[in-house]
Amino acid sequence: MSSLLEQRYRTVLRLLPADYRQAWGDDMVASFMQAAYAAAPEDPEGVEISRPSFAEAASIAALALRLRLGGSGAAPRPFSWGEAVRRVALIGLLAQAAGALSGVILLTWALKQLPGAMPLPDATPAFGGNRWLALWSFTVLLWLPAYLSAVHGHHRAARLLAAVAFLPVLVGGVLTMTDAAQGGVTATRVAWLVLPAVPLLALAAFGPDAPRMRTRPWLIALPVGTVVLVAVGLAAQPWPGREQLVLALADWPGLWSAGVTAAAVACLSVGRRDRLPVWPLALALLVPPVLALRVITVLDYVRMGAYTHDTAVAVTIGVIQSVVLVTVGAVLAGTAAHRLRRLPAPTDTAHHHTAATTG
Amino acid sequence: MAARAMTEPAFFILTALVDAPRHGYGIVGEVVDLSGGRVRLKIGTLYGVLDRLVADGLVELDREEPHQGRLRRYYRLTDSGLDALSTEATRQAANAEAATRRLGAHRAATAGGIG
User: Is there a contact between A30 and B45 if contact means CB atoms under 8 Å apart?
Assistant: First the structure.
């Protein structure tokens, strides 16, 4: 009968893909148990009722992540998942970086610091005169080096820089949520924290085996995205009579919804030249956080302020965006699942090395 | 394997298998000795690297032996594994030699400056 420690270790091993567990699991248990007994030879009974250390469990979790989000040399399915998550990271960082650049350009414009530019109607920045708040608003630029590092293949630096860039977002979010006068923890505030956290977490897929990517398209995407966002920002200035309509179309969740929808339409209409379903999978992964943010912000529109004709327009547009996102997400997920199923199963290609070399 | 830089755990695991086939825990212990106690492989790390070394044809299964009610697998280096390790050891030795040469020159210059 196996000991409690072995049972607990086997539970941790369940993090690993089934085919990998089948090939290596028993040997891992044997090595682990031997190490555990050797570490405390005077107390075998104590060993048997102990738990795997955090470090051992973390090493299994890291291995599971690397196997499921494959890099170069991985089987087609885990490689597709790995590539999709890597693209989620890049898209998320691109959005943050382009959003930061466009935000700073518009802010500088609003402060009348852009020579030759006509003054904007909305020329009073939200922080009104507070230099520290002004400085704080520029911390969004920290996303820029994180994105450029990821694009250029400096993955470790990208992870560190993205964590640094996320810090002001986290601090701002936590300060607001712990301030009872501002309403404390709300779904909206949590959702605003989750969206920038997505690329930060997805950067974990850039392991040592991550293939080199084509840098040029991602580098071009940054100025293009920035110009688009500045144009949207200018269009969203509160010219008389268009306040709510513009707000509903050009708020951040709305822009995300439009971006994901446009990318999905392009991806699904281009056809199936790629054998691996990387783009449908990546976009399908982006839909849930974007949809959550869209739905929550629409509910906020409903709850906040007087229910005017403008609010009704904003809510209607938000509902349409949500329905489109659900539809697009379902089609993307269906396409990705269908094409993933057609790929050879991992058991055909990987983790059977030991069997192949036995004898 | 040529396209991928050899990691430190992979280097030590291959080195641990040069003189004899070893089982998983045996490799862990040998790597601790080889690295002067600096590298202590977790089981997840060991089997992550072993899986890759087997896939790359640098390590293969030698035999299975029963031990206290469990089957213990022993792994051995292949000829490709020996070549890869030899190449990596030569590369690391050349790097170390270059660094040592520069450090020697720097020390000599510094000593001359002080004196």
Answer: no
pLDDT digits (tens, 9 = 90+) for A132-178: 766 777 888 999 999 999 999 999 999 999 999 999 889 888 888 88
Find where tokens 């992964």 sit.
A285
Q: Is B99 left (phi over 0), alpha (psi -120 to 50) or beta?
A: alpha
- A69 vs A292: CA distance, rounded Å: 24
> Are B58 and B80 contacting, i.e. CB atoms less than 8 angstroms apart?
yes
What average pLDDT score do residues B97-109 get?
92
DSSP-assigned beta bridge partners for residue B60: B76
Interface-testing mutation among B45, B47, B63, with chain A (most A C-beta atoms within 10 A): B47
Three-class SS of residue B65?
strand
Helical H segments across A152-212, by residue range: 155-178, 187-202
Task: Say whether A62 and B44 touch across the interface (CB within 8 A).
Answer: yes
Q: Between β-strands B22-23 and B70-77, what pairing exists: parallel, antiparallel or unpaired?
A: antiparallel
Cα A268 to Cα A263: distance, rounded to the nearest angstrom? 9
Q: Chain B contacts of A28, Cβ < 8 Å?
A: 24, 43-44, 47
Burial zone of A190 (CB within 10 Å; 0-12 exposed, 13-18 middle, 19+ buried)? middle
Interior angle at CA A304, CA A324 and CA A198, nearest 5:
50
> Which of A12, A34, A54 best probes binding to B when mutated, by most B CB atoms within 10 angstroms?
A34
pTM for this model (two decimals)? 0.76
Q: In 3D, which of A288, A241, A239 has the Cα closest to residue A260?
A: A288
CB-CB contact of A97 with A143 (8 Å):
yes
Asked if residues A16 and B4 have their Cβ atoms less than 8 Å apart, the reply is no
In whole angstroms, give the CA distance from residue A111 to residue A107. Answer: 6
Q: In this predicted complex, what is the ipTM? A: 0.85
- Among B7, B43, B71, the residue with its CB nearest the CB of A26 is B71
Residues of A in contact with B47 (CB under 8 A): 24, 27-28, 31, 63
What per-residue string of b and e applies to A268-296 under the rule 16 or more CB within 10 Å gives b? Answer: beeeeeeebbbbbbbbbbbbebbbbbbbb
Find the chain A residues whose C-beta atoms sit closer than 8 A to any C-beta of B: 20, 23-24, 26-35, 38, 55-56, 58-63, 66-67, 72-73, 208-209, 350-351, 353-354, 357-358
Residues B77-90: pLDDT tens digits?
Answer: 999 999 999 999 99
